[in-house]
Amino acid sequence: MRNKYLLFWCLVSLACTANGQSPNDGLMMPKKQLCILAQYANGSWTEYWEGENKRENSNLGKFVAQSYMLMGNYGLSKRWNLILGVPYIQTKSDSYLKGQQGIQDLSLWVKYHPLEWSTNKGALNIMTTGGVSTPLTNYVNDLLPLSIGLRSRTASLRGIFNYTFNFGLYTTIQGGHTWRSHTHIDRDSYIFNNQLVYSDEVRVPNVADGSLRIGFIKPRFQTEIWIEKNACFSGDDIRYNDAPFPTNKMIATAAGFMAKGFITKQFALQASISQVLSGRNVGLATTYAAGCTYFFTVGKKADANAQ
Amino acid sequence: MKNTSTLLAFAMLIGLVACDKTIDSATTLPYPETSLESNAGNWKTYQLVSNTEIPVPAPEAANSAAYLAELDELKNIVANTTEAQKEAAIFWGGNGVARWHEIARNLAAQYNVPPNYNADGTYPAPDPANPTAYPRFPFANPPYASRAFALLAVAQYDALVAAWHYKFQYNRLAPYRYTAEINPLIPENDLPSYPSEDAVVAAASREVLKFLFPGEKPLLDEYSTEHKSSRLWAGANVPSDLAAGDSLGRLVAAKIIAYAKTDRMGQANNQAGVQSLRDDATARGITQQWHSLDLPARPPMLPFFGNVKPWNFNDSTKVAIRPSAPPAVGSDAFNTALKELQDLAKNRTRKQWEIASYWADGVGTYTPPGHWNRTASELILEKELNEIRSARAFALVATAIQDAGITCWDTKYYYLLPRPTEVDRTVTTSTGIPNFPAYTSGHSSFSSAGAEVLAYLFPDHTSELIALAKEASESRIYGCIHYRFDCEVGLESGKKVAEFAIERGRNDGSE
Questions:
Q1: Distance (Å, whole) CA A69 – CA B22
Q2: CB of B285 within 8 Å of any CB in chain A?
């Protein structure tokens, strides 16, 4: 059983880290199989870290980001998967600032599964994912935390190690690196590292992420717990009592739980919850998500051995 | 899989593009003097009573043993200049006056963050006696910044007028005019170099900025020292040029600081007096008054900045040019203006958002006065003005902008008009709502004053400057920060204020 589950974008940051959290599992779609995920997620926080200082802000109140995600994962072959995703995001707060909404970034990943060692107890799988993303709309990126994203192009690479016992227990360790391009804001000066920069071009720090997942998978059911960390390599802190900015060094550690069940052979429901545990320049966010997945074969079923 | 390989290659390519992490920032190269302005020593000063009020002793003659020893010392310095020192010579050699305004804008942006509230809902006030403790002094809000740029510009200008007087009185030329062995790193000129205009600017700027940003004294000393040393590294001044210039700049700055201590800025944040402002307005029939929308309610920003001494007119003129009352809350004219904002809050276009954001100049920026200071700087550099022409331009612009701020603040606390969002909470904004009354628009007042004076100084840019001021003004409507009448009246008021500075410019002896 190698169904693809997708646990996406988890709203850990003040606005969002904008790096797709999806193609980081240890599963592959069989050839000519397509899975479509539609998912709603709601992340909110009232406390956030301004640098390393955790605080509330009565002028911002409670921040809420909701997203509606559409993702597709297609098995190009047994070893190659193509994944596409695009979210619509809506943000709001208790402030007088206008909440934002819109289609965010289109993400595309290619997942490759070159290695598999099977024993009579289980199988070790090694996979790699390469991805790119690009903003689809000219959304406002200089109104964090209300902006729906940073409007930066990204490219990512990750490695995935998965061990699944034949009886269903599995663990996945994965790590990735996301390069993020400069972005452009509507004004032509801003402060970075306590210096005024005379440009509309803003450096967005690159980010690394890693996660450890432990779960149980059966043909009709899957559940998983995880812990993950996202960390920018560079960047500055939110200045005391100032707003966040795309240059900020955002770091977040979060833990989560997911469950998924198949209603029919083709149709599954899933739900998850995650909680940020510690961070820097991000919100202390609680995110829950619910979605459904639909699996089907594109064209003639080519490989009867597809598991 | 050929397709897959292509996709991966594409991913790598995007990755490489995303990797370039440098941001270009413009540098200004030194340019030659187009005019020596030999009469500038007689231009009208702001605070100096005369161009000889601060004495500068006569220099050693160019053929004296003392001067020849200085020349030898300078040859030695120039011969041993490091690459970093050469870079500094170019950095400061472009336009020292503009460079110090850039430093001021940087400081204004860094200090432009309102203090956070205390646990008990009160707000701490920055303390000039303890500037580095939170909340740092100053909170460089727009009025504070407008005054900072004006004080800096006036100190530079007055000090340079005096310097020009002594330059042409003593007429000791640059060291490279007395020896062929010094090849300066910056363009040569025939301007007398005693006292050094760069040392004058460095000292005057340093002292005034230390007064305005007392937590930055070490940094300002560092800049000043480098600026002065850069003249030795450039081969453009001998040490005695610099010493005389530093002394003159420092003493002129002391005069400007003494003025600043009595310009009534010290009482501008008199929160105890706010109730009397409200009572006065009530007595004039203004019952629906502005309140802070911050949570918890924040004391209004500088409620008595309108009482600060203007530069280019007196207090009675200020009252005489105060705009007439805005439409009363609830009147037809008011409701029409409010309706425009209610519609904008629902259907703000991306272009309107961009304009609102471009001109917002809010928290963590150099403020609207800084925005126009930057525009002034860009025009000055484009026209390659020399130091004294630059200082004059900055002084005319910055004093007009501060005067516009004073007039605007006087008007704001006279009419106490609530912000649109206070009247209708559904009017959501694209940027933070300033913590002071709406009428008239500060952005419009500052921008109009700045643009009008700049148009006088750079007439070939007039239409562009007036259009920029109009856009800055309208940006506040797009942001739903201001009613249209706030902005229109603000533009008119700023223009009226600018006329006083322009009048001064026409009669300061420079034309």
A1: 33
A2: no
Task: List, in order of start, the domains of chain A with CATH numbers.
Answer: 33-297 (2.40.160.40)
Identify whether residues B351 and B253 lie together within a single domain: no
Residue A150: φ, ψ to 5°: -100, -5
- Rounded to whole angstroms, the maximal C-alpha distance in chain A is 63
Query: For tokens 């069989």, what's the residue?
Result: A30
Residue B78's alpha-carbon distances to B69, B83, B177, B430, in angstroms, are: 14, 11, 15, 53
B333, B337, B340, B346 alpha-carbon torsion, rounded to 10°: -120
User: Containing domain of residue B159, as a range?
Assistant: 74-126+133-260
B294 touches chain A (CB under 8 A): yes
Name the closest residue on chain B to residue A178, using Cα atoms.
B15
pLDDT value at residue B45: 98
How far is the CA of B502 from the CAs of A106, A144, B410, in angstroms? Answer: 54, 41, 22
Same domain, B250 and B303: no
**Residue B207 shares a structural domain with residue B140:** yes
Cβ contacts of B428 within 8 Å, gap of 6 or more: A96, A97, A98, A99, B345, B421, B480
SS3 of B200-222: HHHHHHHHHHHHHCHHHHHHHHH
* Run of H or E including B502: helix B484-506
Rounded to the nearest angstrom, the minimum Cα separation between B381 and chain A is 15
Q: Name the amino acid, one letter, at B476.
A: R
B343 and B217 share one domain: no
Closest chain A CA to residue B347? A98
Instruction: Identify whether B38 is part of a domain.
Output: no
What's the residue count for chain A?
Answer: 307
Do the Cβ atoms of A241 and B115 come within 8 Å? yes
Phi, psi of B284 (to 5 degrees): -85, 5
Q: Last residue of a domain, which of B231, B260, B289?
A: B260
- The yes-or-no verdict on residue A306 having pLDDT over 80 is no
- A115: Cα separation from own chain's centroid: 25
Q: Does residue B399 form part of some domain?
A: yes
Which of B340, B9, B427, B156 lies closest to A97, judged by CA? B427
Mutation for B interface: A103, A241, A242, A245, most B CBs within 10 A: A241
Tokens 């700087």 correspond to B377
Residue A21's pLDDT is 31
Number of domains in chain B: 2
Kindly report whether the global pTM for this prediction surpasses the value 0.90. Answer: yes
Chain-chain contact of B360 with A155 (C-beta, under 8 angstroms): no
Are B315 and B292 contained in the same domain? yes
Report yes or no on B401 lying in a domain: yes
Cβ of A201 within 8 Å of Cβ of B23? The answer is yes
What is the Cα–Cα distance from A99 to B94, expressed in whole angstroms?
A: 45
Look at residues A98, A105, A81, A100 and name the one whose alpha carbon lies nearest to residue A90. Answer: A100
pLDDT band at A114; cut points 50, 70, 90: very high
The residue in chain B having the minimum alpha-carbon distance to the alpha carbon of residue A199 is B25
Question: What is residue A300's predicted lDDT score, i.e. its pLDDT?
Answer: 66
If asked whether residues B277 and B367 sit together in one domain, one would say yes
Same domain, B338 and B230: no
Return the higher-pLDDT residue of B268 and A14: B268
Instruction: Give pLDDT < 50 ranges for chain B.
Output: 1-20
Out of B215, B235, B260, a domain closes at: B260
- Indicate whether B247 and B289 sit together in one domain: no
| Rg over CA atoms, chain A | 20
Rg (C-alpha) for chain B, rounded Å, is 25
CATH of the domain at B347: 1.10.606.20
> Is B318 domain-assigned?
yes
Are A95 and A57 contacting, i.e. CB atoms less than 8 angstroms apart? no
Residue A270 confidence (pLDDT) above 80: yes
**Contacts across the A-B interface (CB distance below 8 Å):** 134
